[in-house]
Design a protein that fits this description.
This protein is α/β, with parallel strands linked by helices. Helix content is 24%, strand content 25%. It contains nine helices and 16 strands. The strands form three sheets. A seven-stranded parallel sheet has the order 1-2-3-4-5-6-7. Strands 8-11-14-13-12-15 form a six-stranded antiparallel beta barrel.
Length: 307
């Protein structure tokens, strides 16, 4: 995905951990990789030696990075309402001065994160104003300023400042007009007819209302199909929607293909994506799973082949 983003015109990358930063080293200048996740002061040496930009939310981490004498590029995180990471807005000017004034660090950027950019315009505006107010009190240059996540960039492009941090939108989700970046498919490995009254799966949650053709598909919750999908939603088989029936198992799901002509062993079941003129989106799967599209996509397990 980092390769695709750079090919599309991005000039910088953001990751959550130092380990992820190591995976994209060499694609851009190390300083153009921002490690956004929270780090412990004990990790300051490893962060400094990476050469990457580091997000700082506290004086403790700022001082630990400064002690490395490595001239670490720092992006100061200001908490304006998200509540996870970040210093208080009133503490930001002092921390910015500490970072810029130390031999071991320099202020390369400042940022905040919107909590409700897709649902609460007033809250987002308050956060943006708090952020700008904190920056106005700086005695040093704030570096690159960034606030917008995907929802922020979509709904509040006037808040883009110097950079945006699109996440879910890069997958082609939650942004009208984009194309999904992936499909999720698995194979039918077993077929059988069952009689009226037959039950399927753990807990016997599905009972056949009449004779039914049942397909077993080689994908389960180990691979990212949430157990909350029991008796919920569909998959695509031979260009038709077929309901998921019974409980989701670790390695398999079961599907009613009674209305799909010609089903054979080895046929493809599409869980996300297109088959003929039918499409199942990650957003649709999220509704069936009681979650968001981001969790649907990041739940896809490691044994699912990436092609």
């Amino acid at each position: 995905m980092a390769h695709a983003a750079l090919e599309g015109g991005a000039t910088r990358l953001a990751v959550a951990t130092l380990e992820e930063a190591g995976q994209v080293r060499g694609l851009v200048d190390p300083e153009h990789i921002l490690v956004m996740g929270g780090l412990l002061p004990a990790q300051a040496g490893a962060a400094a030696s990476s050469g990457c930009s580091v997000s700082v939310s506290s004086r403790e981490l700022a001082e630990a990075l400064a002690a490395t004498n490595a001239n670490v590029p720092v992006h100061l995180k200001i908490d304006t309402g998200m509540g996870r990471f970040g210093c208080a807005p009133e503490d930001a000017p002092g921390l910015a001065q500490l970072i810029e004034g130390s031999r071991g660090t320099r202020l390369a950027g400042t940022w905040t994160h919107f909590a409700s950019a897709g649902s609460d315009d007033a809250m987002t505006r308050r956060q943006f104003e708090l952020f700008l107010g904190a920056l106005a009190a700086f005695d040093v240059a704030p570096g690159i300023r960034h606030a917008c996540n995907s929802a922020g960039a979509l709904n509040h492009p006037d808040y883009a400042l110097d950079a945006v941090r699109c996440g879910i939108a890069i997958y082609g989700c939650e942004w009208p007009g984009t194309k999904p970046a992936l499909s999720l498919k698995a194979l039918i490995t077993h077929l059988k007819w069952v009689e009226k009254g037959a039950t399927i799966g753990y807990g016997s949650l599905w009972r056949a209302p009449g004779p039914a053709r049942v397909a077993t598909v080689a994908i389960g919750y180990e691979d990212g199909v949430h157990r909350s999908r029991a008796n919920r939603g569909q998959v695509l088989v031979r260009g038709r929607r077929a309901p998921l029936i019974g409980m989701v198992s670790m390695d398999a799901i079961t599907v009613d293909v009674s209305d799909v002509p010609g089903v054979q062993l080895g046929d493809v079941a599409t869980l996300i994506g297109r088959d003929a003129d039918q499409v199942i989106t990650a957003e649709e799967v999220a509704e069936w799973s009681g979650t968001i599209s981001y969790e649907v996509l990041t739940s896809i397990g490691s044994r699912v082949a990436r092609i």
